[in-house]
Amino acid sequence: MTIQPPQEPASGVSTSRMSGQPPAGGPDAPRVRLAVKAEALVKQYRGRAGTVDAVRGVDLMVAAGEVFGFLGPNGAGKSTTVRMLTTLMSITSGTARVAGIDVMAEPDAVRRCIGVALQEAGLDPRQTGRELLVLQARLFGSSRAQAATRAQELLELLDLVDAADRRVKGYSGGMKRRLDLASALVHEPEVLFLDEPTTGLDPASRLTVWEEVRRINARGTTIFLTTQYLEEADQLCDRLAIIDGGLIVLEGTPAQLKTELRLRLGSDTDPTLDEVFLDATGRTRQRLAGEVQQVSA
Ligand SMILES: Nc1ncnc2c1ncn2[C@@H]1O[C@H](COP(=O)(O)OP(=O)(O)OP(=O)(O)O)[C@@H](O)[C@H]1O
Ligand SMILES: [Mg+2]
To answer: What domains appear along the chain, each with residue ranges and CATH number?
Structure first.
């Protein structure tokens, strides 16, 4: 689906400030419900070794219904931002609302509306996949019968039926990621956060996850996804933001960002999204090779 940058008529924050587009506000601007709104979000990690400024003032607006991509090199602040938005980590300063709810004021209410699959899957290796999904569904208030039905649906959706009654410790990395994704979907969340959902997956499994993300999105769930794969962002995301050194350096639709760079470079053909990424983060191809990968699934 194609979505215009979200605007909130009441807000002075522009999501298009980095993309060279004027903010399209005004009385006729469509009112878009925001799934995520972050303003001046900051995270400092303080430890004995000193302070790390991981996120240094991030503004984000994600419209309900979007697939939003959050890209950036290693250490840019993607996972830190996701952890703050999903109530898993304290916010040093700034504000965030998810599904319209203030993350700091009402973390429990936010948790009921979201699903999260983190970069490091936190699965209990002693459980079977089915047990894990049933437990999740029960925790969200389903009856025993409803939980069993939902677990079976998700096992089918994520192609895990054959492994359903084996312990998670015997699963491959890709199977664990798919199970983690299934567990984030148990309660049909309004907003789904996926931190690098396809890292380490083989091409077939990556395609399964892409299809699943599209299907979940088509059913109305907003997706906030971080990825190291530019092709993935290009294929899946309605809009994306690139973060570097804790700051957003670029945002827009993939097509918009490519067109802007083409016009700026004066070339005849659109650049690829990896060229946009390189340009925005000032990285060279050699450095990119070790950080962000371009893949085709
Ligand atoms: N618990 C922590 N304590 C101290 N510093 C941290 C902690 N977690 C992350 N950092 C630092 O914060 C910065 C942002 O890290 P973050 O994990 O958010 O990056 P990322 O964009 O998700 O990177 P990657 O692509 O490698 O997953 C990095 O400099 C990282 O070293
Ligand atoms: Mg990360």
So the answer is: 34-126+171-252 (3.40.50.300), 254-291 (no CATH)
User: 37: Cβ below 6 Å to ligand 1?
Assistant: no
With a 6 A CB cut-off, is 72 part of the ligand 1 pocket? yes
Atom of ligand 1 nearest to the CA of 83: 18
Q: Looking at the whole model, is its pTM more than 0.70?
A: yes
Q: For ligand 1, atom 16, which residue shows the shortest CA distance?
A: 77
The model's pLDDT over 253-265, given as tens digits with 9 standing for 90+, comes to 999 999 999 998 8
90 lines ligand 1 (CB under 6 A): no
| Chain segment 2-46, per-residue pLDDT in tens | 445 565 544 433 333 333 343 344 555 556 689 999 999 999 999
Q: Are 6 and 62 in contact (CB under 8 A)?
A: yes
